[in-house]
Amino acid sequence: MAKLEVIATNKDDILKIDFSKASRIELVEELEKGGLTPNLDLIKFAKENSDLPIRIMIRPHDKSFNYDNEDIEQMKRDIDNVKNIGCEGVVFGVLNEDNELNFEAMQQLVKIAKPMKITFHRAIDDIPTNKLEETLLKLESLKIDTILTSLGHIEEEKDKRFNILKNSQIEVMYGSGVSVKNIDIIKEKFPLEFYHVGSSARKNNCLKEDIVVEKIDDIVDKIS
C-alpha cells in the first residue's frame, strides 16, 4: 500500500494534515521558494500537536543547492535544533558548483542528523543522469533513508532515472505535480511506496491557499 507525504507551512496546515489520511508531514516555510527551513516555534508546535512523523526542511536559501561554509554551519545548527526537539527526520541536499554531490558537506550534516531519518531532496534532480548511479552509491554509504525526486528536468530521461533510482537501497518518493487527477497514471508508470504533494493538497491547487483534507484523502484512497 502506497503512502503520502504532504507539505505543511504553518500551524493550520499541520493540524489539518494530522487529521487527514496522510502518512507523513514535510514541514517547510516559504513554499513559493521551494521550501526553506521553518522557524523553531513552528517546529515545536508540529512536534507537540501532530501524531504523524515529521521531517523538517533544512535549506538556508533558494539560490542553489551549493552552500558556502557559513550556510553549512547554519544547517548544522538547524539540524541539531530539530534533533533536540525530537522530530522524526530532516530534509536536505548539498551539491557542488558542477551539480554533483558535495560528499564532504553531506558527511558532516549526516553525522549530526543521525539517528534521525534523512530525506535527500530534489537536489537529486540537478545531478546529471550519467552521474546518478555513482551518486546513489555515495548516498547509500551515508545511510540516507529517502530520496525525493521529480526524476530530473528532461522528460526523455525520466524513465532511465526511475530505473536507476528504484534499484537503490534507498526509499524513493516521487513528487512532481501529483494530484488526484493523475495519481493513477503516475502510480502505474512509477510504482513506489511513497508519493509527495504540495499545492495539489490545497484549495485551487495554489501554494498560498489552505490545506483541504478531502483532497489529501482522495489521493490516499487512490494509492492505497
Automatic annotation (TrEMBL):
The record's listing under SUPFAM superfamilies reads: CutC-like
Q: Which domain of life is it from?
A: Bacteria
Q: Which Pfam families match?
A: CutC
The record's similarity note reads: Belongs to the CutC family.
Q: Tell me what this protein is called.
A: Copper homeostasis protein cutC homolog
